[in-house]
Specification:
The protein has 114 residues and is an all-beta fold. The chain has no helices and ten strands. Strand 5 and strand 6 form a beta hairpin. The protein is globular and about 40 Å long. The termini are far apart.
Length: 114
């Protein structure tokens, strides 16, 4: 079955960086567009970044444009989210998801605080 395992979250000071990873299995990873979402406490889930199956095109929410970079390694069935210049407003649980598949991973917590 589809499995998505996010990792790399943690506590970071404002202005810091983190790199999230999402290891995928149970489906043909290279055939699917991949998304990163986040959900802050008391808020809905927000689409943060997307990448095409070949990795040749990306899209970002306005709130993270210029600070976050999504990438993927189809040989490793892994999608990444490099997050720079982090702000307290980026604090959330971060999830990856394959476009058009229903499964979610357990998420990884990112907390930006001094």
């Amino acid at each position: 079955q589809v499995q998505l395992v996010e990792s790399g979250g943690g506590l970071v000071q404002p202005g810091g960086s983190l790199r999230l990873s999402c290891a995928a299995s149970g489906f043909t990873f290279s055939a699917f567009m991949m998304d990163w979402y986040r959900q802050a406490p008391g808020m809905g889930r927000e689409l943060v970044a997307s990448i095409t199956s070949a990795g040749d095109s990306t899209n970002y929410a306005d709130s993270v444009k210029g600070r976050f970079t999504i990438s993927r390694d189809n040989a490793k069935n892994t999608v990444y989210l490099q997050m720079n210049s982090l702000k307290p407003g980026d604090t959330a649980m971060y999830y990856c998801k394959a476009r058009f598949l229903a499964s979610w991973g357990q998420g990884t917590q990112v907390t930006v605080s001094s």
